[in-house]
Amino acid sequence: MDKKTKDLVDKGIMLPLMEEFYTIQGEGSHTGTAAYFIRVGGCDVGCHWCDVKESWNADLHPPTLADTIVDNVKKYANTVVITGGEPLMWSMDYITENLQKNNIKTHIETSGAYSFSGKWDWFCLSPKKTKLPLDECYTQADELKMIIHNKSDFDFAEQEAAKVAEKCQLFLQPEWSKKEKMTEQIVDYVMKNPKWKISLQTHKYLNIP
User: Fold this and answer.
1) Which of 34, 38, 106, 48 is nearest to 76 (CA)?
2) How many other C-beta atoms lie within 10 A of the C-beta of residue 166?
3) Quick one: which H or E segment has residue 187?
4) What residues does the Radical SAM core domain cover (predicted)?
5) Which CATH class is domain 3-206?
């Protein structure tokens, strides 16, 4: 990457774009709603069960002008979900400001492990044990989405729920490879602890991106 491109990436005027697509949100509070997904490359959180490990190396994904991405969104949707990878590795200020100028709602899905940036209509925080969120990200969370891979993850979920604001919606989501076993445990847990809701990866059941 040449210096000029690196400067643009550092400012968020370009982003390492892995893929972009229009689909149905499959998880969390906005399940079932149409949205344009922007997946940026780069992540060092290192979840062993990650289903998009090809996103981890940002160098594999070409720096793309944020203005171009915004123009693509305008053709399809009035809601964007920026995900990764880990989107907060990059400045989200420029792209979210320009999306909102075009009356496009901005949602993010993040581990919260990097500094907060961007202007968000919805902030979905999904903490990981390997690299915990920064304090500033807990305060921003509209939605806490905890991935349940094993029984100890319920304790971790409660620890993280204690750090977010009262308004934050709380979701437990089974990790896909353990969905049969863990969904049963999550159902039982939510019935005993009704502050939580269940999130499922419905897009995978629907066989859509």
Assistant:
1) 34
2) 4
3) helix 179-192
4) 30-209
5) alpha beta
For residue 40 the two structure tokens come to 């940026």
User: CA torsion 138→107→158→156, rounded to 10°?
Assistant: -90
Q: Residues 136-145: what's their mean pLDDT?
A: 98
Question: What residues are designated binding site for [4Fe-4S] cluster?
Answer: 43, 47, 50
Q: What letter does residue 150 receive in the DSSP assignment?
A: S
The answer to whether 133 and 52 have CB atoms below 8 angstroms apart is no
Q: What is the mean pLDDT of residues 19-31?
A: 98
Domain spans of the chain, in order of start: 3-206
Is the pLDDT at 49 greater than 90? The verdict is no
pLDDT in tens, 84-99: 999 999 999 999 999 9
Binding residues: 24-26, 39, 43, 47, 49-51, 83, 85, 126-128, 209
